[in-house]
Specification:
It comes from Solanum stoloniferum. By secondary structure, this protein is α/β, with parallel strands linked by helices. The chain has 22 helices and 15 strands. It is elongated and about 140 Å long.
């Protein structure tokens, strides 16, 4: 552009004043003709360039070169224009009045609500989900230093040559309040198996030998497979014919009772009396907390129910003292002792939501608070299963011979069972089995936590009772050893004298009926044990512990009565009065 065209723009026009006047030549304002001017030099240069292009473009090589140059220029221009439009759009959006107001408001709000220096208006992607936390397990505990139970040792047995049989010994319990406070919040670890389910079979077929409609007829292959411990297992465990234990399975229970049993979520104390074989004995020294929170269940058959109603002990409330009475219908076995093994070994199926259970035989009276027992034999030992060892016998083969001598079961069946276990590798007990201290339990008391590994143990133990004889003391060791060979799970086998500290053994009802009424009352209704005296006189009560011995010293008069009643050995048909 030359200098002659500068300065001719007006505020409302994009052209020169000269061009407007030329176009509006009819206007009266125009008085002089336009002055012709020479074309500018730049126009001549552009015209020469255009003629040059037209001259050489028809040539092939030059034409292709020019075409490529033009295409590249057009492509770059499109990119430049597009990028400018996007930037302009973002700029307009960012600085629009409503956007600026919104950002300003959010910025002020973030300053008011967030003092960590981050703007709440900043859009951040949601944080990645956290990995699942590892499961929490109870790992035991140690008593604080100075606690009398920490260094407690058993005193030597009293030198009483006149009394050589089993007797209770002192046990160091924590006070009830401390025992309750130490109840674990998390379950114990279950080694080897974490998911345990149970076989349901409506159509059953008998295989090999043993079994029943209630427990099923597992083959020997299935039996061997059940000892192959793995994370998820599906095993026979009674109640095979129904989808819900106690409902049309054999060992049937009323629905109202089943609902109550399913609602028990803490500790359950259970016992059973079938065939009116025993008398109901009330727990003693039970704390008010345990009375409100522990489930006390007594399973009876219809015969025992009729006896209790005739003796005016049972009314419509279906309660006798602390015990809730549950009547069992359609018993699966003809033998009352075998029927008793169902609640004894399968409490985890009858109480699916309970965490801990304490089983005591119907002939026993509980004289220590359940929480103190759980703390002493499970939690303090970091164990999930506890049972006392037999006071005298610790070898399965010796136990089998004692059962045969006492006519506890058919001798041929006992021999068949023992021979079968010998072929599977069962050997007589010796010191080589240490730290296992015994192969024979005193099975009238079982203390356990309901976790998969302990549930598996009692399922397999019940299967042995169902397949072979009901003498569970014979089958205990083979099941325990098979599981321990695959896992690091152990059983706390405590002393029999410690068991006799928290339960008192009474007579069966038929034995009581043969005794004179006054003496029967003395035997069945035991006087308060020394545990009361220890609570008042023990120097450890104000600190943290209590040492109790329910029957520490027998009065002289009562000792003469017991001496005069030795005829009960003949009645029981066994030289050992404590053999059961």
């Amino acid at each position: 552009m030359t200098t002659g065209s500068l300065g001719l723009r007006s505020s409302g026009s994009y052209g020169s004043l000269q061009q407007q006047l030329f176009q509006n030549s009819s206007s009266p304002i125009q008085t002089t003709p336009p002055i012709p001017r020479k074309p500018p030099k730049l126009f001549k240069e552009k015209e020469g360039l255009f003629l040059w292009i037209c001259k050489f473009a028809p040539r092939k090589n030059v034409g292709m070169l020019l075409l490529c140059i033009v295409s590249a220029a057009a492509f770059l221009w499109v990119l430049y224009v597009g990028k400018g439009e996007v930037a302009a759009e973002q700029s307009n959006r960012m600085f629009a009045p409503e956007t600026v107001h919104k950002y300003t408001f959010r910025g002020i709000e973030s300053i008011q609500k967030n003092n960590v220096g981050q703007s709440a208006s900043t859009v951040q992607p949601p944080p990645p989900p956290l990995p699942p936390s590892p499961p929490v397990y109870f790992k035991g505990y140690t008593l604080p230093p100075g606690n009398p139970c920490e260094g407690f040792t058993l005193p030597p047995p009293p030198a009483d040559k006149k009394r050589t049989g089993p007797r209770p010994c002192p046990v160091c319990y924590l006070p009830v309040e401390q025992a309750i406070a130490l109840m674990p919040d998390a379950p114990s670890f279950s080694p080897g198996v974490s998911n345990l389910t149970y076989i349901h079979e409506e159509n059953q077929s008998k295989t090999e030998f043993g079994g029943s409609d209630f427990g099923g007829y597992p083959s020997l292959i299935q039996r061997n497979d059940s000892y192959d411990i793995r994370e998820s297992m599906n095993v026979h465990c009674g109640f095979v014919r129904g989808i819900r234990p106690g409902h049309q399975t054999g060992f049937d229970i009323d629905d109202s009772d089943l609902l109550e049993m399913e609602s028990c979520q803490g500790v359950v104390v259970a016992s059973a009396i079938f065939g009116a074989f025993d008398l109901i004995r009330q727990p003693e020294n039970t704390s008010e907390y345990a009375k409100k929170n522990v489930c006390f269940y007594m399973f009876v058959d219809e015969q025992t129910e009729a006896f209790l109603r005739n003796s005016s002990e049972l009314n419509s409330s279906m309660r006798i003292g602390l015990w809730r009475i549950v009547v069992v219908h359609n018993l699966p076995y003809d033998d009352p002792r075998r029927n008793g093994k169902v609640p004894k070994l399968l409490l985890h199926r009858l109480f699916p939501n309970a965490r801990y259970s304490l089983w005591i035989d119907g002939k026993l009276e509980l004289v220590v608070d359940p929480y103190q027992i759980l703390e002493r034999f499970l939690w303090r030992k970091n164990a999930s299963f506890a049972i006392s060892r037999h006071y005298k016998r610790f070898d399965v083969f010796v136990e089998a011979e004692a059962n045969k001598a006492a006519a506890k079961f058919d001798n041929a069946s006992i021999d068949f069972q023992v021979d079968f276990y010998k072929k599977e590798g069962l050997t007589p007990y010796s010191r080589a089995k240490l730290p296992i201290t015994s192969d024979v339990p005193e099975g009238c008391v079982i203390i356990r936590e309901h976790i998969p590994i302990s549930n598996l143990f009692t399922c397999l133990w019940f299967n042995e009772v169902d397949r072979f004889t009901p003498r569970d003391q014979i089958s205990f060791a083979i099941v325990r050893d098979k599981i321990m060979s695959k896992t690091n799970w152990t059983v706390n086998m405590f002393l029999d004298c410690e068991r006799r500290n928290f339960v008192i053994q009474g007579y069966h009802r038929d034995v009581v009926g043969r005794l004179t009424p006054p003496r029967a009352n003395i035997i069945v209704h035991h006087p308060p044990p020394v545990v009361h005296e220890s609570h008042h006189t023990s120097p450890f009560v104000p600190t943290s512990t209590v040492i109790t011995t329910p029957i520490k010293k027998i009065p002289t008069k009562r000792g003469r009565e017991r001496k005069s009643k030795r005829h009960r050995k003949v009645i029981a048909g066994n030289k050992d009065p404590n053999f059961n």
